[in-house]
Structure formats: structure tokens, C-alpha cells
Amino acid sequence: YTGLDRIDIEPQALIAGLEQDSVGGRFDTGESFEGELDDIKFIARALPRHEVEMAYAEREWNRFSVQIDRVSDDAETNNNSSQSISLNSWDIDFHEFESGLRFNRVGIPPDATVEKAYVEFRSSGSASSEITVPIYGELNPDPVTFSSAQPIKTRPRTTARVDWEPLPLSWSQHGSTADISPVIQEIIEQPGWAQGNSLALIFGRGVDSNRRGVFSYDYRPEQAARLVVYFSGGTLDTSPPSAPSGLQATTGAQSVSLSWDHASDAQSEISHYRLYRSANGGGAQPIARLERSNY
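Predicted structure:
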């Protein structure tokens, strides 16, 4: 309250449009918001500056996001002197070793301007040490997935580089990298880049053994790393994708696993699939919304 004005607040209440100048401080009615709020978002984590800026830019720029969707698209080197890589680790370590993330069906046209870009992830441990992780792109307009024949160390890198200083994180906490728009811009300006191509990011190693770990696709597919890009301009391909094909069902004792092939056309940027189930000849009911091609 301030002066003779009093505001009675219930425990755990939320006040929109008025804030305290300090924790436990008072409210000033002269600083209250007057008008209409047409969009309120609740986010259970601290947001870095570039994500806050994105909340205000969503209506002006195109937004594209895609998640890692296969085991071999997130990888890390086994040690600093070897070119061998690990494709089946339960987490991907940044800073201690070189790591790579590859994203498929990236829906950014070659003539677009990348305004902001970052990678979202879930932390695989608690870490608060101060580190700097250099982030490059693979200088390839459509890179292949990671393998022993195509390791991380030998891949050409963009001239653009972003040094990311991660915030302290706890287990399973949401996090994001610094703004990597210069890296993404250089990738899509390469000859041969087309909407629907794949792109790869390379996370260089630091000078010590401190690290930040994130959940891998192999461990938690639904919480694997996600690329988020905001862009303006560009000629978007709006043609509908072909239907998914190659549906396979593998039965277990009390379960059925499904897998299918993504749309075959190179320009397809499918955001997600909806899975329906019909029991005993009845109507089909939705059971899942998936960004990957398996269930």
C-alpha cells in the first residue's frame, strides 16, 4: 500500500500491471498500468535478454523451431586428442569436449535475414562454474549426420563465432544459448542452401574440464535440444508436404512402437505430427502430438 491506499493480497496471488520497487517493498498507485493486456505468459525460469526481446518481436518476425530427432544428430568427442565420437551418451557435454548438434528440415529461406537465434535445452546436472563455450556452424549447406566417418573435429566451420557464457543451472532446468544469429546467417548465405536443408552447430571446447551438460535425444527424445530462429524477409515455400510413409509397427508384450519416414520432399518443414488411436472399431481419438517420427 501507499499512503492511505491499501491493497489486500491473498497468499500466492498474482498482481499484473503493478510491481514493488524492491522485495517486500510498497506499491505506488501512480505507477500502475492502465490499459488492456492481450497476452500474458508464465515462464518458470529466468529468461536471458534475447528471449525477453523475442517475446515482443514474435508478431513482427517469422518464428521457426525444430528439435533434434535422431540419435546420431547430437554427439560429443570421446576425448580432446581423438576424432572418435560418442553417439549414445545420455547427455551432451559442452566446454569439456567438442560437441555437435544437427537439425533437420530447417525452414529458413536463403534470402531471409536472421534476427535472433538460439538453442533451447534441458540441463543434465547442476553447474555454476563460469565458462565460455565457442559456438560455430558447420560450413556446409546440407551436412550429414554425425558418425565415425564424419566426426566433429574434421568438419569445416563458419567464420562467424559466438562465445556463450552459460548461466548457472540445476538438474532438468530449462536453458538456452546466447544469440547465435550471426552463425545461422552465414550458414543460410552459403551457395546451395535451400529451405528444408539440415544445419549443424559445433560447440568448441574450453580451457579446463568444467562443463554444461544437456539431455541427449538418446536419453529423453522429448527434451532434446531445440533450435529456435526468428527471421524476417525471405521467400517462403508454402506448398504442402507429401504424406509420411513407411509406417512400421513393432509389438511388445504390452506395447506397440511406431516409426515412419518423414515427408520425402526436400522443402518440407513439418512442425509436428498428430497421432490418433481407434479401439474396437470406434472413432479415432488423438493420443499424442509429436515432433519426431516415432512413438
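Summary: The first strand starts at residue 62 and ends at 67.
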